[in-house]
Amino acid sequence: MRVIKRYRIHAGTFAWILHRLSGLGLIFYLLLHIWVISHLSGGEESFDGIMHFFGGPLFKLMEIGLVGVIFFHMFNGLRITLIDMGVMVEKQKTLFVIAIAVWLSCWGASAVVMISRMMSATG
Q: What is the pTM of this model?
């Protein structure tokens, strides 16, 4: 128990945890995507039924979350790649802040476009 008390969570640990969680989320999405596509073998009715289920507003909002997870995993992965190549190793915190800023900017812009398309499709 003493080891846990001495261990401090810093930006690198937080980035590591978020990267692993986003990777798990993407694996879950990939498996769900394969399951949905497998409904093609059941015929048109089977596929249309599952697409109707996933076409609801809740799943449209979850798509916006998926885009955010993809962008986070991508930009944090680029940060990790730079650090692994020996570029800006001493500036890991700065790189993490930059990755977060770029992630939020891209996700925000994408969310605005996705929401406006959702609104125009329903109106």
A: 0.83
